[in-house]
Description:
By secondary structure, the chain is α+β, with helices and mostly antiparallel strands. Helices cover 38% and strands 20% of the residues. The chain has helices at residues 12-21, 38-43, 45-50, 74-84, 86-91, 105-114, 121-124, 144-158, 173-182, and strands at 3-6, 56-59, 64-71, 129-135, 163-168, 185-190, 196-202. Strand 6 and strand 7 form a beta hairpin. The chain is globular. The protein starts with a strand and ends with a strand. The model has no long low-confidence stretch (mean pLDDT 95).
Amino acid sequence: MPLVRPYRPSDLDALYGICLQTGDAGQDATALYRDPKLLGQVYAAPYAVLEPESCFVVEDDVGIGGYIVGTRDTHGFEKRQLRGWWPALRAGLADPGEDGASADGDARMAYLIHHPARTPRRINEPYPAHLHINCLPRLQGMGMGKRLLDTWLAAMAQAGATAAHLGVGPRNARAVRFYKAYGFHLIEQLPPPWDTCWFGISTGR
């Protein structure tokens, strides 16, 4: 049986790999990026580095096959990223400017590193924690996503966060179905170019 356990620093490379292999609306995004770490530098690694106590992985006899990362305090975490995460990445990465905002692949991630998105106050204040969760195909359909969420929400409740949110593109229909089935409710759906569904849940559900 795969094991859900707390994140360890030695798991970081696995997080980068899983983020890339699930980064195209749940499908493998390897062909979309020249730099295989860019996607993970935005959506996975900063949580593992800056708030490892809020990160968990699922491990089977093959290795790390899934993770859930996040923060108990979105507003505070975004401030920490501004001080302790984005500056070092920007030093070695050119800013693509406004063209990057509507680009794909490396240019889009470079834009987000130089111009990180801020969670809207209307989302952040009632749902202060947030998360990202991904599992490789070999662990999908086995209840691992539910186990990861159960573990993470319990940890957030213990840390004092009463509610959590996540954002997902509507193109990722499998993920949308999963979140709804788990108990998340749709807060709002933004049209293109944002193209994001915001979901929320109580940590004490």
